Amino acid sequence: MRYTAAALTDRGRKRPTNEDAFGFSVEHGVYVVCDGMGGAAAGEIASSLAVDEILRHLAKDREPGTPLPALAENAVCAANEAVYSRAQRNQRLHGMGTTLVSLVVEERRAWVFNVGDSRAYRLRNGRLVQVTLDHSLVEEQVRMGRLTEAEALRSPLRNVITRALGTQNCVTPDSFELGTEAGDLFLLCSDGLTREIADPAIESILTSDVSLEDRCSRLIEAAKKAGGHDNITCILVQAA
């Protein structure tokens, strides 16, 4: 199985800076998107630190022979420790954190890890399915039946996440193992995309017959046209 990828990030129309970060290594099959939070540039620091740690553990300093799921979980823990320790050393950065969604692929298998409300999707045979579950207050209330989807969209608590990387000395990511097939297309994105455009619109863009780079651009532009209230980042990973 061969994989190709494209990525794009944009600060959107409302934010003065971009606190999202992304990185990937097609050679090592590692892809990651982070959405930072915290004032005085702390969000940018948190997201960049987390991306660097994930790539360091899963690409640069990868231990041969260790199962990928174990390596990925160790990488998430290391990223959490890096962000948390940095915040403890600098009062100006206290409380900073970041979401994280990461895809790790090996032949016909894929693992997705996430903390927070950045998402992973898989498009297969023209149908888009969300892989991850948001660690957000309103989404958890929807899953428990306390809010409807429509109520969640209008809730003033939409931005409250219940799990983040780097805000505590330990964090547990959700993990998902998937089989991959030729033609599968994975999307990793920050909530700046999914808060602006609904899944059917994302699906329509992803099924268009253009390059991965152009599909990334169309996703970004659609989110900006819908308001662009937050930073917007997406990575597309195609299996062939």
**Number of extended strands:** 11
Q: Quickly give the CATH architecture.
A: 4-Layer Sandwich
Class inferred from helices and paired strands? alpha+beta
Total of helices:
7
Identify the CATH class: Alpha Beta
Kindly estimate the percentage of residues that lie in beta strands according to DSSP.
Answer: 25-35%
> What's the CATH topology name?
Phosphatase 2c, domain 1
Tell me the series of helices and strands, N- to C-terminal. EEEHHEEEEEHHEEHHHE
The total domain count is 1
Q: Main beta sheet: strand number and arrangement?
A: 6 strands, antiparallel
The percent of residues in helical segments reads: 25-40%
Could you tell me how far the N terminus lies from the C terminus, measured between alpha carbons in angstroms? 6 Å
> What is the overall silhouette?
globular
Q: Can you tell me the residue ranges where pLDDT is under 50 for at least 5 consecutive residues?
A: none
Radius of gyration equals 17 Å
CATH H-level superfamily title: PPM-type phosphatase domain
Overall pLDDT level: 92
Q: Quick summary of this structure?
A:
33% of the residues lie in helices and 28% in strands. The protein is of the alpha+beta class.
List keywords for this structure.
240 residues, alpha+beta, Phosphatase 2c, domain 1, 6-stranded antiparallel sheet, 5-stranded antiparallel sheet, 11 strands
Explain how this protein is built:
It is a single chain. The protein is α+β, with helices and mostly antiparallel strands and 240 residues long. The chain has one domain (3-239): PPM-type phosphatase domain (Phosphatase 2c, domain 1, 4-Layer Sandwich), CATH 3.60.40.10. The protein has seven helices and eleven strands. Strands 2, 3, 4, 5, 6 and 9 form a six-stranded antiparallel sheet that branches. The protein starts with a strand and ends with a strand.
